[in-house]
Design brief:
single chain; about 350 residues; alpha+beta; 8-stranded antiparallel β-sheet; 6 helices
Length: about 350
């Protein structure tokens, strides 16, 4: 194998796939990147057998070939070479030679034949979605992904499609049992599916979606595969059943509170300083006569709001409430409340957020 390639192109290509290479602790081959050179293209692949990423870029290929090299070391060398330079790469006696100006490096290799495959032959759902919509679905919901491994089916984001009144909708939802984030977009997908994406996969997809305008998604029972232009990303799914989140969305919260988002967030930010001394980070909120009073262990805040209902006293985790408020798009937050023990419902454009109260 012998190629010549721009440093910037190679650096970018490696950066998109290296996240799927394994950290130390797995077999050495999982810590490598596979390099395929042929037909004026350089194709890079990485996998830890949980995820896999492939990307290709143009290169001057004078001798075809395939090899694998240590991912981390390869990337560290390439990204530190001059950005406007040309990099020569060739394999001699099972050693990868990297040449750039006066810089020369040698890396050990392993056979490409030993590199594991990550494939799925049958996909039940195939559709396209704009990267903008995909990013929005993720950004509005992943904050509520659970880290409780005893309920592994909550350790990811549920992506599903359902039909409602003749219109198919794609939903993204996550919950840790205390918080829930739900975001929805209309779609012409014309089929129903439901999968759970692992937390790492959610982060990988969010990053890669920024690389192009359209995502082509294919889903099987165990794998999701997404094409982002020249990048192909695959991931195993969480094998479990996500709970029926629709059952926990409040339907009787008839007390509407409207409050300025920035003002509320600033009050919460200040009072969370003293609330942090409580193990549950709890604060009390009192809604009455167009006024909101927030109290916590020696501190209080008062805020003008739009509220005409009965007096409500309710407790929330301050940090969780701040997280929820930060995902509202509008300048004003619409919070729907009911009796003190009921969860709060906050609505934003195409999104809903739920927060369970704490004892006060």
């Amino acid at each position: 194998m012998k190629i010549l390639i721009d440093q910037s192109a190679l650096k970018k290509a490696i950066s998109t796939v290296i996240g799927s290479s394994a950290v130390k602790g797995k077999l050495p081959i999982f810590q490598n990147i596979k390099i395929d050179a042929s037909g004026g293209k350089l194709n890079l692949s990485a996998t830890d057998m949980e995820t896999a990423t492939n990307n290709s870029c143009e290169a001057l290929v004078s001798d075809d070939g395939s090899i694998t090299v240590p991912a981390a070391t390869f990337f560290d060398i390439v990204k530190k070479l001059p950005s406007e330079s040309k990099i020569g790469i060739e394999v001699v006696d099972q050693t990868l030679l990297i040449k750039c100006g006066r810089s020369k490096y040698k890396l050990p290799t392993m056979s490409a034949e030993d590199f594991p495959s990550f494939s799925e032959s049958k996909f039940g759902a195939e559709f396209e979605i704009s990267s903008k919509d995909l990013i929005n679905l993720i950004d509005k919901t992943r904050f509520a992904i659970s880290s409780d491994e005893t309920r592994y089916y909550l350790n990811g984001l549920c992506l599903n499609s359902v039909e409602s009144d003749g219109q198919f909708k794609i939903n993204a939802v996550s919950t840790d049992g205390t918080r829930l984030g739900l975001s929805t977009i209309n779609s012409d997908i014309n089929l129903e599916f439901s999968v759970i994406l692992p937390k790492k996969t959610v982060g990988d997809i969010r990053k890669l979606a920024a690389e192009c305008n359209l995502a082509k998604i294919r889903i099987s029972k165990r794998i999701i595969k997404i094409e982002f232009g020249s990048i192909t990303y695959s991931s195993k799914l969480i094998d479990g059943e996500f709970p029926d989140y629709r059952r926990v969305i409040p339907t009787n919260n008839d007390q509407l509170v409207i409050v300025n988002k920035q003002s509320l967030f600033q009050c919460l930010d200040r009072i969370s300083t003293v609330a942090a001394s409580d193990k549950h980070n709890s604060i009390k909120l009192i809604f009455e006569n167009n006024k909101l009073v927030l109290t916590a262990l020696g501190g209080s805040e008062e805020l003008d709001i739009n509220y005409q209902g009965d007096k409500i006293e309710i407790g929330f985790n301050a940090k969780f409430l701040m997280d929820l408020i930060s995902h509202v798009d509008e300048e004003s937050v619409e919070m729907f409340l009911s009796k003190n023990s009921a969860p709060a419902l906050v609505k934003s454009l195409n999104s809903q957020f739920i927060l369970m109260p704490t004892r006060i």
